[in-house]
Amino acid sequence: MIKFIKTNIVPYLLYAVYRLYMLTVRYVEPPLPKEIKKSKRYIVAHFHQDELVLVRTRINSNFFVMTSTSTDGEMMTRFLRLLGYHCVRGSSTRGGEKALLEMIRTLKASNLNAVIAVDGPKGPIYKVKEGVLVLAKQTGYPILPVGIKISRYFQVQKSWNKMIIPKPFSRVEIKFGPVLDLPSDIKNDKITESANKLESILRKLKGL
Fold first, then answer.
1. Helix crossing, 71-82 with 10-22: angle to 10°?
2. Shortest CA distance to 63 belongs to which of 73, 54, 71, 72?
3. Which of 86, 62, 44 is closest to 174 using CA atoms?
4. Element (H or E) spanning 166, and its range?
5. What does 146-194 look like in DSSP terms, one character per residue?
6. 96 falls in which pLDDT band (50, 70, 90)?
7. What is the pTM for the complete model shown?
8. Can you say how many angstroms the Cα of residue 195 is from the centroid of all Cα atoms in its chain?
9. Are 142 and 184 in contact (CB under 8 A)?
10. pLDDT tens string 117-174
């Protein structure tokens, strides 16, 4: 019964509440960097903590996101699909490699972009994992690091990612970091180096 409620009722309630709640929040987003406008296809990289805030910025757009294979992941998948996202099921702990391969295949065959919470699904918080770099290498898509600055917010201290939720009538400023391009022949040690560079950029966007 709990699984049924989570997957068949909660996503619709969450969708309705989220759409109404976010109408009270003001978003300010800069123009896309010229490298992204030129490429037209790209990967948004952000910390898991900012996920709920950033979901609104890509509603009814052409973005793929990876979601967990768990019951909570099914709930989130249905919620995101209601918002117009495309989803691939998997994570770094369950079915991650298969999901990453499926995302690579899908991106190559479509006009879709991708958005990745780089330290998900279970952390450690603010630690970039290499999946996003592999995705960039295999697709040729540049990576756009994205952070946020919120005037007033709640924070869920008990969650591993210390999730941030804007307070009503707050202001959210979207911030872009330097675009990262990975050559298709990049070596494994350079992928690790690029992951560290991306982590440094995202930390700087958050003021860490």
1. 50
2. 54
3. 44
4. strand 164-166
5. EEEEESSEEE-TTSTT--EEEPTT-EEEEEE---B---TT--HHHHHHH
6. low
7. 0.91
8. 16
9. no
10. 999 778 899 999 999 999 999 999 999 999 999 999 999 999 999 999 999 999 999 9
